[in-house]
Amino acid sequence: MAQAENQDPNALCFQFKSTRASLNELILTASDPDLLAPQLAAHAAKVPMLFSNMPVIVNLQQLESTPDTDTLNQLLSLCRKLSLVPVGLKADPDTSVALCETLHLADFSHQRRAPKSAPAEATPVTPEPEQPAPAAATKVITTPVRSGQQVYARGSDLIILAAVSAGAEVIADGNIHVYGPLRGRAMAGVDGNTDARIFCQSMEAELISIAGYFKTSEDLHAECWQQPIQALLRGSRLDTVPL
Amino acid sequence: MAEIIVVTSGKGGVGKTTSSAAIGTGLALKGFKTVLIDFDVGLRNLDLIMGCERRVVYDFVNVINKEATLNQALIRDKRTENLYILPASQTRDKDALSVEGVETVLNELAESFDYIVCDSPAGIEKGAQLALYFADTAIVVTNPEVSSVRDSDRILGVLQSKSRKAEQGGTVKEHLLLTRYNPARVDAGEMLSVEDVKEILAIPLLGVVPESEAVLKASNQGVPVILDADSDAGKAYDDAIARFLGEDREHRFLNVERKGFLSRVFGRKG
């Protein structure tokens, strides 16, 4: 048996595996903690579900200059207070390595950038040969989502095999599929994914939204009421297409 | 072990107490030892509908606070054998109820009763949540009207998330009881039909009780309407109980009954 060496007491007790997790970026356009604190807190109050221990990469690349370590520490503790979990930084690639070392954060600054410096220093771990990343587990709901209930599929798709009642909310970072009538609110791609779509057997929603672009039942009445449709973004327009 | 049934709706004034009285009486008539508990502390109504308001000495809150024993507080129904009523307190509010207190009382009742019928207060707050917390089965009373249906939907959500059964990973059995149904108004498009309500709530239909003068009369006389066996509402509740106990009975009162004399005359002319 090829896998029998797992039983060997001398076998390695760990494994590196490539994985893909959905991460959000907190892009700062000002670095003054006093300015940021009330705005971020207000946003957290609006969408508390997004903030509950959400891992984020703090992006400093839009700032005119990289703030000093003290300010950065203040910013990070502000994030933690609002139950965000900063896991990494995106900063000026020239200084980010030292910065991340002091702050004990992962350095994401070199991603997407042309490999100006050799990427060897950024990756101490030899990555395994690229495997197809396992998709985040899709959330599947089999019972009706009743008025007043909220379902959120973080970092994944959401499949609902029953009705979504008026006054209920179904939210996903990915796509939303509803196989019963959709009478409540459906919000797909809430982390900003503009490729997310909403599929449903009978469109009777109060509101649908993709990445923040929304349509209310008034528009839906005129377009596709009680029809099987998919909703997708075309530019900044939310379109409904018959299935 | 007793089965705990909660009669609930979310919305007020849809017929919870009338239905509780009818269901409790119906179960007792079938020979099951049944107790009706009024959870609407502060707005005591069940005793009026049951016609036992003059015999209330101790109430549910007294029993929870150990100021009276259960036997002192339970009122034996004079008309129906096997039926007991545990009235609510009129002077206290819902804060007088506690999970532990309610559990103790229900456990004691469960030793000697077959069915415990809890008449829930309206709303989705503490009183209503306590009434449904220990339920095995829920009878959701709904009027064929959008706001009532929406509120029933909400309470169904609460049932499947905040009840003890749900917390333990189980489900509370759900039944829909549609009350104040008026087929003529449904035909006129002024009222939701049975099918509409079933479509929205998606739970099994236990019965449809027609809008009936018998209900108001029964309430004012303090006689559960199910005892008015000649009335349409009485028959509808009787059917519902039979279905609840597993009998297969066809739904009645869904369509407009034969036309009255006047409309027949005018109908011919037109």
Write a brief caption for the model.
With 243 residues, chain A is an alpha/beta fold. In chain A, 19% of the residues lie in helices and 29% in strands.
SSE blueprint and pairings:
The complex is a heterodimer of chains A (243) and B (270).
Chain A: E1 24-27, H1 33-46, H2 48-51, E2 54-59, H3 69-81, E3 84-90, H4 96-103, E4 106-107, E5 139-141, E6 150-153, E7 158-160, E8 169-172, E9 176-182, E10 185-188, E11 198-203, E12 207-210, E13 213-216, H5 217-224, E14 229-234, E15 237-242
Parallel strand pairs in A: 1-2, 2-3, 3-4, 5-7, 6-8, 7-9, 8-10, 9-11, 10-12
Antiparallel strand pairs in A: 11-14, 12-13, 14-15
Helix pairs in contact in A: 1-3
Chain B: E1 3-8, H1 16-29, E2 34-38, H2 46-49, H3 60-64, H4 70-73, E3 75-76, E4 83-86, H5 99-112, E5 115-119, H6 126-133, E6 137-142, H7 146-162, H8 164-167, E7 173-181, H9 183-187, H10 194-201, E8 205-210, H11 213-221, H12 232-244, H13 261-269
Helix pairs in contact in B: 1-12
What does this structure look like?
The complex is a heterodimer of chains A (243) and B (270). Chain A has a six-stranded mixed beta sheet with strand order 5-7-9-11-14-15, with helices on one face. Chain A has two domains: 21-107, 2-Layer Sandwich (Alpha-Beta Plaits); 139-242, 3 Solenoid (Pectate Lyase C-like), CATH 2.160.20. Chain A contains five helices and 15 strands. Chain A has helices at 33-46, 48-51, 69-81, 96-103, 217-224; strands spanning 24-27, 54-59, 84-90, 106-107, 139-141, 150-153, 158-160, 169-172, 176-182, 185-188, 198-203, 207-210, 213-216, 229-234, 237-242. In chain A, 19% of the residues lie in helices and 29% in strands. The longest helix of chain A is centred in the N-terminal third of the chain and has 14 residues, at 33-46. Chain B has 270 residues and is of the alpha/beta class. In chain B, strands 3-4-2-5-1-6-7-8 form an eight-stranded mixed beta sheet, sandwiched between helices. Chain B is globular and about 65 Å long. At the A-B interface, loops of A face helix 7 of B.
